[in-house]
Every structure is written in structure tokens, then in C-alpha cells.
């Protein structure tokens, strides 16, 4: 409880020192789980930086990631993953971050930063994470820590402004509107609002592995991508869709950069849903297995997604392939038209998964849900007649990457305008042959 109180006081102090109208550094949003900061350089350019306060806080520092790829920002963020002791506290983390950003951008430190240099009570070595309430500590003074028995007058004055006396519980209630986690709920967090113990263990195992890799100098990926994916994984573990078993996640070889997704739930009125029920009866499997590979440039480049099992086809795929089988560019256009088209090798043809259609704001869960919806919209069906040998030969990573690469090259060379012309021709062909009636909103 002391740890949670300390964290709340630190966040309140940060919001007070760096309001949303501060000229250099702003706290835009905050809770006991996340912090959104903004740094403004001398030219007025804005850099948004996120901090995720994990279940192991303050034994381990928050997980930071920046939306910008600029070296000056990523280097500053990287430093924050190597702190310990008092420097793990969010108020000191912000101070370290701001000093480094000001140094790298050659701007003077704001005078307000001196207010961050207040004593913090560091939990004893045996202390455990915030969420489990095993962090020791008594009353608080100043910002997030207990003062010594003989604090100076200046410090006491600051404490009077920030500290929350027992007699001001009503003010605390009002001030905590932006900090939704109540202290009484901490014990039930893991069971109800947070995540399962096994998922907490997975996150902790990943964090320890990353730290060991860093110490050995064998770091894979980038700090920014790793931090973002750790946040994504934590958010997924806490999401309703995941808890309701709409899909499951397995990290391949405990790598944060490769996920196996088992898509278990699609529109119950769709043929694909019926196929999944039939698949369970025949093979004992009730899901579509997807493999997702993330790059070190994530989230600024899309992941590569492919179907591993079972073999998927679209309702009109055979008609199109019979007519246009040798015309790759037309085949790509059909992919755009039908949506959810699974290419040779298992690659998924969606503009969302290309550089042109991707946005760094997309979450992994949103991508998973979109893939599920697109497969249904594209009339995807499971090919039950395919043998195991055929499945293994047709769906492979190499074939999937090659087919997807070919389509991306066509898209980049010809642009969307040519694709639109081809789409119109195909729609016209379907109308003439009576194979396809487009929705009214499509004309």
C-alpha cells in the first residue's frame, strides 16, 4: 500500500510541475499504470513518450517507448531501462529523461526540474512488486518518499503543499479521479482487473531475459520495439477479448518478436465458424493458427502475418484463379477486392499489413481482430481435403514471404490508381458474368 501511495504522490507532483501547458515538458495523461509525456524541442517539435508501470514496479523501472524514431529520443529512453534503486521511481525516471533530452537537443534545463530532486524511500532488497502490496514503507513526505527525522524547512514547506494528511481524505478522493486504481482493490487486481499469475510470470521472465541479453551485449531487436511489444503483450493479457478466449498467444522460443496466435472466435453466422466446428470434430483443433513476425522497427513498420494451419481459401478464389492465374497483378487486385485473401504460402493480403496502409497507432489486438473480420468478409473457408503433406508444403514462411513481397512490389511500382482501374475492370467482369453483385454503397 505504501508503494501505491508513493506512486500516486509522485504522479501528482509530476502533473503539478509539468502541466499540459509547460513550454518544455508536459504530462499529458497519467494513471498508476501508464504515463504519457511530451517533450518540446527548441524548434517547437513535439515528441510523445510513453511509460508503462509494470507489476514489478518499483523493483524494476517503468517500461518506456517513444513514438519517434529519432536517435536523440530513443537514446534518452534507452537509458531508463538500466536504472536501479531510487532511480526506478517514476519521478526520478522523468528527471533522468528530461535531463538527457535537454542535453541531446541542446536546450537549457527548465528550472522546475529542481523540484524533482527530493528524497525517496527506497524499498528494502526483500521488497516485492507494487501490485502484490509487499513493498515496505511507512508514511510519506515530500514527493513519493519518507523524509529523514530532521527535514529542512524548505522540504517541510513542499511537503505541506503536496502531502495528503489524514484530515484531507475528501480532497484525496477528488484528486484521485485520474488514478482509478483504489488501494482497497490492490489485492484483487491480479484476479479481476489485471492478469493471470502465469502471464505475470511470462512478462517477468521476458524482462529478466532482456536484461541478461543486454548485460551480455547480445541484444536482439531495438529498445523501442521491445518496449512497445512488452506493452502490447501486457495489454493483451489484460484485455477482455483475450480473457474471453477469442484468441490465444504463444511466444515462439520465448521471443517477444515472434508470436503464434490461435484465432478461436469468428462471426458465429459465418461459414468459417461452421468450418472451425467441423475442424474440431475431425482434427481436434478449434482455431486458425497465425504466425506474426515483428521487426526491430516496430511499431513504425507492419508485422508480417501468415496463416500456418489450416489451408484457407475464398469462395470465389477458384473462379478468379482459373481466369487470371498467370497475371500476378490481377491476382493482387482480386486480393484487394475480396479482402481476407490468403496467398500462396499463407501470407495474408491486407493493405493494413503494408507500409502504405500501416499506422504506428495500430495495436496487435486490433490487427488480430481485423484479420478475423476480414477472413469472414472474404468468405474464407477451410480446405478439409488437403492432406498433411500438402498443408506443410503449401504453407511455409519462405513461400509466404516471397508471395507477399511480390505483391508489395507491384503495389509500390504501380500505385493505388492503377489498382483502382483494375478493380473496376474486375467488378465489371463479375457483373457481366453474374458472379458478383457489389454492395449498394460500392455503386
Entry keywords:
443 residues; alpha+beta; Ubiquitin Conjugating Enzyme; 4-stranded antiparallel β-sheet; 12 strands; membrane
Can I get a quick summary?
The protein is elongated. The protein has 443 residues and is an alpha+beta fold.
If you compute it from the alpha carbons, what radius of gyration comes out, rounded to the nearest whole angstrom? 26 Å
- Taking strands numbered 1, 2, ... along the chain, how are they ordered across the largest sheet? 1-2-3-4
The CATH architecture of the largest domain can be given as Roll
Q: Work out the helix count.
A: 15
Task: State the separation between the terminal residues, measured CA to CA.
Answer: 61 Å
CATH topology value of the largest domain:
Ubiquitin Conjugating Enzyme
How many individual β-strands?
Answer: 12
Task: Choose one word for the global shape.
Answer: elongated
Summarize the structure in words:
- The structure is a single chain.
- The chain is built from 15 helices and twelve strands.
- The chain is an alpha+beta fold and 443 residues long.
- The protein folds into two domains: 2-178, no CATH class; 248-442, Ubiquitin Conjugating Enzyme, CATH 3.10.110.10.
- The chain has a four-stranded antiparallel sheet. A four-stranded antiparallel sheet has the order 5-6-7-8, with helices on one face.
- Helix 2 packs antiparallel against helix 3 (90-104), helix 7 runs antiparallel to helix 8 (223-238) and helix 12 (328-338) packs across helix 15 (397-433).
- The longest helix has 37 residues, at 397-433.
Amino acid at each position: 500500500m505504501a508503494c501505491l501511495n508513493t506512486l500516486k504522490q509522485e504522479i501528482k507532483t509530476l502533473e503539478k510541475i509539468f502541466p499540459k501547458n509547460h513550454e518544455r515538458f508536459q504530462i499529458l495523461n497519467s494513471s498508476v499504470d501508464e504515463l504519457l509525456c511530451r517533450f518540446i524541442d527548441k524548434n517547437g517539435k513535439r515528441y510523445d513518450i510513453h511509460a508503462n508501470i509494470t507489476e514489478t514496479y518499483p523493483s524494476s523501472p517503468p517500461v518506456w517507448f517513444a513514438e519517434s524514431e529519432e536517435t536523440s529520443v530513443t537514446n534518452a529512453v534507452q537509458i531508463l531501462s538500466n536504472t536501479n534503486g531510487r532511480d526506478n521511481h517514476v519521478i526520478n525516471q522523468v528527471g533522468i529523461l528530461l535531463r538527457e533530452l535537454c542535453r541531446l537537443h541542446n536546450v537549457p534545463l527548465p528550472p522546475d526540474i529542481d523540484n524533482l530532486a527530493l528524497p525517496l524511500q527506497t524499498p528494502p532488497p526483500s521488497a516485492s512488486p507494487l501490485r502484490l502490496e509487499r513493498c515496505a514503507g511507512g508514511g510519506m513526505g515530500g514527493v513519493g518518499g519518507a523524509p529523514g527525522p530532521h527535514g529542512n524547512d524548505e522540504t517541510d514547506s513542499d511537503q505541506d503543499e503536496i502531502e495528503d494528511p489524514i484530515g484531507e481524505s475528501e480532497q484525496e478522493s477528488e484528486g484521485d479521479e485520474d488514478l482509478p486504481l483504489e488501494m482497497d482493490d490492490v489485492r484483487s487486481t491480479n484476479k479481476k482487473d489485471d492478469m493471470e499469475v502465469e502471464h505475470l510470470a511470462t512478462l517477468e521472465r521476458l524482462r529478466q531475459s532482456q536484461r541478461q541479453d543486454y548485460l551480455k551485449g547480445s541484444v536482439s531487436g531495438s529498445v523501442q520495439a521491445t518496449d512497445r511489444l512488452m506493452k502490447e503483450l501486457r495489454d493483451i493479457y489484460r484485455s477482455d477479448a483475450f480473457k474471453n478466449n477469442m484468441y490465444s498467444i504463444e511466444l515462439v522460443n520465448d521471443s517477444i518478436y515472434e508470436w503464434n496466435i490461435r484465432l478461436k472466435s469468428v462471426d458465429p453466422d459465418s461459414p468459417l465458424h461452421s468450418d472451425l466446428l467441423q475442424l474440431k470434430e475431425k482434427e481436434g483443433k478449434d482455431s486458425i493458427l497465425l504466425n506474426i513476425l515483428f521487426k526491430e522497427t516496430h511499431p513504425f513498420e507492419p508485422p508480417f502475418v501468415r496463416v500456418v494451419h489450416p489451408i484457407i481459401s475464398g469462395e470465389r478464389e477458384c473462379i478468379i484463379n482459373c481466369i487470371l492465374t498467370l497475371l500476378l497483378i490481377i491476382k493482387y487486385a482480386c486480393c484487394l477486392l475480396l479482402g481476407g485473401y490468403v496467398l500462396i504460402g499463407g501470407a495474408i493480403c491486407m493493405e493494413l499489413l503494408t507500409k502504405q496502409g500501416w499506422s504506428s497507432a495500430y495495436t496487435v489486438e486490433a490487427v488480430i481482430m481485423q484479420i478475423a473480420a476480414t477472413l469472414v468478409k472474404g468468405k474464407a473457408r477451410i480446405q478439409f481435403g488437403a492432406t498433411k503433406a500438402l498443408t506443410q508444403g503449401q504453407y511455409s514462411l519462405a513461400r509466404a514471404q516471397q508471395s507477399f513481397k511480390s505483391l508489395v512490389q507491384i503495389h509500390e511500382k504501380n500505385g493505388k490508381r492503377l489498382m483502382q482501374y483494375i478493380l473496376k475492370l474486375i467488378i465489371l467482369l463479375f457483373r457481366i458474368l453474374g458472379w458478383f453483385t457489389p454492395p449498394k454503397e460500392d455503386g
